[in-house]
Design goal:
The complex is a heterodimer.
Chain A lengths: L7 E8 L10 H16 L8 E5 L3 H5 L5 H9 L6 E3 L6 H14 L5 E9 L5 H8 L15 H16 L3 H15 L13 H6 L2 E3 L2 E2 L8 E10 H4 L7 E9 L15 H13 L8 E3 L6 H9 L8 H6 L16 H4 L4 H17 L12 E11 L2 E11 L1
Parallel strand pairs in A: 2-3, 2-4, 9-10
Antiparallel strand pairs in A: 1-7, 1-8, 4-7, 5-6, 8-11, 10-11
Helix pairs in contact in A: 1-3, 4-14
Chain B lengths: L5 E2 L5 E2 L9 E7 L5 E2 L15 E5 L3 E10 L10 E7 L5 E6 L14 E11 L5 E9 L6
Parallel strand pairs in B: 1-10, 8-10
Antiparallel strand pairs in B: 2-3, 3-4, 3-5, 6-7, 6-9, 7-8, 9-10
Classes of the chains: A alpha/beta, B mainly beta.
């Protein structure tokens, strides 16, 4: 792998509350997140040199298929600068973050903004569901009856068969994340649940029940990035981007017996190599648990424990806020919410707050390194796009 | 067999004489590395060569990798319904709806033998039947 010209830091983050916002337009959500991040960074907005915009499905919902970033930035006062759109399903804003990082790392720009925004609550929920179903290979899967909870349920069933993981253990992931979400003012669902309640909630696709599913939502999230050499001009506690790894799913293109690595595994390997760090160095992580069982599978794919042992680590409390490696302190996708195009930068927001020591009642004790894993879409049983960011104090 | 139907996607399978019971998936086999792909590819995804790729019919039977009983359904499908992934002997894994069983958890077991059925699975916006494929459990003799 090549070397980057220079180091990059995060000097500002912002996000809206994730949830149902009928009174706010997509432009409002993007503007609110953008200006929170700008104010948090202390930069003069006129010094921002480029804007990277992540949004997944607005084209199918409102017809604004093209130039979505330019449209929302019109209302955020940042028109006239280079605006780059990075639609990549649920990883859209992590992709925006990666492109923003790369252009500063390359030396082209000094200060840039990455922003994600999505508005999924409409009068017609069917329209939202149809739009999200395009985050697959439409011809091979989307038209063949693909149902996202079902796709995760199939992998969960295999995981349970191969590792002995139980329904109760999967339910515990949801219980933990809802408990964390109650401590997060930005979270969509602030309600504690018990293992019994999770298992008794409506079955969506066994073993997945309603309380194990992320809800649809509206929201925006943003980050201001700058060259690390300049970061201290703006704030005393910049967060360093140690690495961003990215991959795509290749399952469909390999013979079954060649399927040894996953998009998460490959993105993580790239990120660890670039950062010069390993999973043992990570103090907390935000994982893309669109459905609860995924948290256990990703925990292993990221190297936090050997295969099949994630349920034991969960049982022992290691992934709690007070544990060895807290996972989804924000509440995760089940509780914090999942306005898909804003999700990745929402995760970055959480890890930045944690590393700064600004996470309030859900603060992890003195973390040094945090990881974000954000996936988008499904192709052939694996994520279509997968990003792994490693952030450092 | 004069009924007007459309295939859900071109090139995924063939129905000799229009007979669904004789239907076969069409994959491709690379003459260099022997890897079989589905759907048919112009370029081998394994060795990246394109000069010895040939269309090849795939097995009608395989084993169930996993399945899900879906209690909600996207447009064009009716809940509850089952989706699954079936591994063919050619080392290809195919996603489809699972048919001919009750939509219950105990109706299927991971690893069991499955066979493909070519039949209408949904309709297009004009109400025209779209012929696709499903898998169902292999029926033993006498049933």
């Amino acid at each position: 792998m090549g070397r980057l010209a220079r180091e990059v830091s995060i000097i500002g983050v912002g996000m809206t509350h994730f949830g149902k916002h009928p009174q706010k337009s997509l432009r409002d959500l993007a503007r609110e997140a953008t200006w929170q991040a700008i104010k948090d960074s202390g930069v003069d907005p006129r010094s921002i040199q480029a804007i990277y915009c992540g949004n997944a499905v607005e084209g199918l919902l409102s017809g604004q298929e093209d130039v979505r970033g330019q449209v929302v930035m019109r209302d955020a006062g940042l028109a006239g600068k280079p605006i780059i759109n990075t639609p990549n399903a649920c990883a859209s804003s992590s992709t925006a973050f990666r492109e923003a990082w790369l252009t500063v790392a390359s030396g082209l720009y000094d200060i840039v903004l990455a922003v994600g925004f999505e508005k999924l609550f409409l009068d017609d929920t069917g329209k939202t569901t149809r739009a999200l179903a395009t985050c697959t290979d439409v011809a091979m899967e989307g038209n063949m009856g693909v149902f996202f909870p079902g796709m995760y349920a199939m992998e969960a069933k295999r995981y349970m068969l191969e590792t002995g993981c139980t329904r109760e253990q999967i339910a515990k992931v949801s219980v933990k994340n809802h408990k964390n979400g109650c401590l997060n003012p930005h979270a969509q669902i602030k309600q504690k649940v018990t293992v019994e309640e999770v298992l008794a909630s409506k079955t969506i696709a066994d073993p997945i029940t309603l309380y194990m599913c992320s809800p649809i939502g509206d929201g925006g999230a943003a980050a201001v990035l700058c060259a690390s050499s300049l970061a201290h001009r703006f704030r005393a506690d910049p967060i360093h981007i140690a690495a961003v790894g990215m991959s795509s799913g290749a399952y469909q293109d390999m013979a079954i017996d060649q399927k040894k690595s996953t998009a998460t595994g490959r993105a993580a390997a790239e990120a660890y190599e670039l950062a010069g760090l390993g999973p043992e160095d990570v103090n907390l992580a935000e994982l893309h648990n669109a459905f609860s069982p995924a948290e256990l599978i990703y925990f292993e794919e990221l190297g936090f424990c050997p295969k099949g042992e994630a349920p034991r680590h969960l049982d022992e409390g290691e992934t709690e806020i007070t544990g060895r490696i807290p996972i989804n302190t924000s509440g995760g996708l089940e509780s914090k919410g999942h306005p898909v195009g804003a999700t990745g930068l929402g995760m970055v927001h959480e890890v930045v707050l944690q590393l700064r020591g600004q996470a309030g009642p859900r603060q992890v004790q003195n973390p040094k390194v945090g990881l974000v894993q954000n996936g988008g879409g499904l192709i052939g049983g694996d994520a279509a796009a997968m990003c792994v960011h490693i952030l450092k104090k | 067999m004069e009924k007007k139907t459309k295939m859900i996607a071109e090139g995924l399978f063939e129905l000799p004489d229009g007979d669904p019971t004789q239907g076969r998936f069409i994959g491709s086999r690379c003459g260099h590395c022997g890897v079989v792909s589905f759907p048919k590819r112009a370029l081998c995804p394994n060795c990246l060569k394109d000069d010895l790729i040939e269309a090849t019919p795939l097995s009608r039977r395989g084993t169930l990798y996993s399945f899900s009983v879906n209690r909600l359904a996207p447009e064009g499908f009716k809940a509850p319904y089952i989706t699954g992934k079936v591994d063919l002997p050619e080392k290809v894994r195919i996603f489809s709806v699972i048919s001919d069983v009750e939509p219950e958890e105990d109706a299927l077991t991971i690893g069991q033998a499955m066979e493909v059925v070519f039949a209408p699975i949904t309709k297009d916006l004009n109400g025209c039947d779209l012929v696709g494929y499903t898998f169902r459990p292999v029926r033993t003799a006498g049933q």
